[in-house]
Amino acid sequence: MTELVTDPLLRRALLEVVILGLACGPLGVWVLHERRAFAAESLSHAMLPGLVVASLAGAPLLLGAVGGIVLAAVLVAVAARDARVGGDTAVAVVVTALFGLGVVLALRPDVPARLAEILFGDPLGATAGDIAVAALLCGAVLVALALGGRSLRLAAFDPQAAPSLGTKPGRVGIALLVVLAITIAAAAQGLGSLLLVALLLAPAAAAIRASDRLGTQLRLAAALGAGCAVVGLEVSRSLDVAAGPAIALAACVAYVVVALVRPGERGPGLRRAPIDGLTGSR
Amino acid sequence: MSEVLIEAVGLSTGYAPGEPALRGVTFAANAGQIVAVLGPNGGGKTTLMRALLGELPPFEGRVDVHGEIAYVPQTEQARLDFPVSALDVALMGAYRRTPWWKRLGRAEHDRALQALDRVGLRERAKDRFGTLSGGQRQRVLIARALVQDAPILLLDEPFSGVDRASEATILGLLGQLRAQGHALLICTHDIEQGRGFDRVLGVHGEQTFFGPGAALDAAALERTYGSEIVTLGEGAAIAVQCHHHDHEHDQHG
């Protein structure tokens, strides 16, 4: 375990994933309360072509991630303008198309074979610059969540009355997606486009299950996110398995443990448990 | 004559341009007045509320609002699984007044507790909103409006699914607010209760009536509810809801 701190390579990886875990946990709580799990899953998959192009061009993956997400957002917006298609269908079609395009690009014989790294992440490859960028972005995400806490509460709890209380739920939804996109872009290097959603949603789902208090949920999700990142990295080191998948599995195990300790509650007035958000249903 | 706080003149509004869901609404609510909004399900009561809140644009006519509006939606519109206590919900009434960078202070907490006290729920302040009964949830939403302290209150069916004790508490509170000079618009299915307020506004896709409850005659009720109205004699009437929502196959009034 001490090698995580003493080994420079592992120490950088540890810093990177702990920073990501601290930001992903609280953001995930809001993503689930706002029923945006499908958007989180979709955004993380849709950036694959951008990551591949950045990888081919030797550009920072962060740049590729941002490009991929912006392209996906524009295409979804264009497709969703047709009322016969609808938002969910537009997201599904655009995301699968972009994901397929990314795989085709990455599997071309004349390009370096880095598909696994892009899909599943490589925290051990994090440089000091990557860590600084991740810290900056994740810090900004946490500040945004703290400052926007009241609006997020109103939009999630009572969207009908929110405008009369000074919050426009539509704008809050867009702002949350922007914050989500920033986090996904920041996490792409360390956790990959397929697996980062596990660190985003599983600790959050566990925290929501563990506590009935929003403040506790947010703090617990941050702690669980960072803790799962440490445990996953240690499992990766000791069992010599890939770090990204080990972290994703650790996050999911944390959720299963909490679910076993605190089985789901459905009181007489509860219409839907927050965990339904994991399915992306709204 | 007391000051007009909210009024609509020739208002047509709706959800799609060129397809008004509600037409020809002209009314005014003065300070210290309660206006009951009557109409069948799908008749345009909630549409009117949303237009008055500025969420729906006027296709024709205008809405004039003189002061902040507090909106109390139907309680089932709120997310019951969201982790907030009754006190948290009441505190939301202070959000608009408090700058976004400032934390809510002791004064706001005291005001929220006083509001919960007024609706008889101070001892349930720490309870999770979703675990309260329908009537208690409605009272918490009214406490939030009290904290907001807006001169105009819009209440969308505040008596729907509410037990008699809660209904009495809410009616008493509304009377106090009226006496304090607030203007209140209350959507209700209860015709006889609506008649007891200062003014009645009938809507059924368009305005069917506006005036004192005593002037709400059988012809006005027929225009408002169509064949859904049953007159019981001695001026009493009930609206029989037969469509729109299966779960509302009830008698009101």
TrEMBL record, chain A:
<protein>
    <submittedName>
        <fullName>Metal ABC transporter permease</fullName>
    </submittedName>
</protein>
<dbReference type="InterPro" id="IPR037294">
    <property type="entry name" value="ABC_BtuC-like"/>
</dbReference>
<dbReference type="Pfam" id="PF00950">
    <property type="entry name" value="ABC-3"/>
</dbReference>
<dbReference type="InterPro" id="IPR001626">
    <property type="entry name" value="ABC_TroCD"/>
</dbReference>
<feature type="transmembrane region" description="Helical">
    <location>
        <begin position="170"/>
        <end position="188"/>
    </location>
</feature>
<comment type="similarity">
    <text>Belongs to the ABC-3 integral membrane protein family.</text>
</comment>
<feature type="transmembrane region" description="Helical">
    <location>
        <begin position="12"/>
        <end position="32"/>
    </location>
</feature>
<keyword id="KW-0813">Transport</keyword>
<keyword id="KW-0472">Membrane</keyword>
<feature type="transmembrane region" description="Helical">
    <location>
        <begin position="90"/>
        <end position="107"/>
    </location>
</feature>
<feature type="transmembrane region" description="Helical">
    <location>
        <begin position="52"/>
        <end position="78"/>
    </location>
</feature>
<feature type="transmembrane region" description="Helical">
    <location>
        <begin position="127"/>
        <end position="149"/>
    </location>
</feature>
<keyword id="KW-1133">Transmembrane helix</keyword>
<feature type="transmembrane region" description="Helical">
    <location>
        <begin position="242"/>
        <end position="261"/>
    </location>
</feature>
<keyword id="KW-0812">Transmembrane</keyword>
UniProtKB/TrEMBL annotation, chain B:
<keyword id="KW-0067">ATP-binding</keyword>
<keyword id="KW-0547">Nucleotide-binding</keyword>
<keyword id="KW-0813">Transport</keyword>
<dbReference type="InterPro" id="IPR003593">
    <property type="entry name" value="AAA+_ATPase"/>
</dbReference>
<dbReference type="InterPro" id="IPR017871">
    <property type="entry name" value="ABC_transporter-like_CS"/>
</dbReference>
<dbReference type="GO" id="GO:0005524">
    <property type="term" value="F:ATP binding"/>
</dbReference>
<comment type="similarity">
    <text>Belongs to the ABC transporter superfamily.</text>
</comment>
<dbReference type="Pfam" id="PF00005">
    <property type="entry name" value="ABC_tran"/>
</dbReference>
<dbReference type="InterPro" id="IPR050153">
    <property type="entry name" value="Metal_Ion_Import_ABC"/>
</dbReference>
<protein>
    <submittedName>
        <fullName>Metal ABC transporter ATP-binding protein</fullName>
    </submittedName>
</protein>
<dbReference type="InterPro" id="IPR027417">
    <property type="entry name" value="P-loop_NTPase"/>
</dbReference>
<feature type="domain" description="ABC transporter">
    <location>
        <begin position="6"/>
        <end position="237"/>
    </location>
</feature>
<dbReference type="InterPro" id="IPR003439">
    <property type="entry name" value="ABC_transporter-like_ATP-bd"/>
</dbReference>
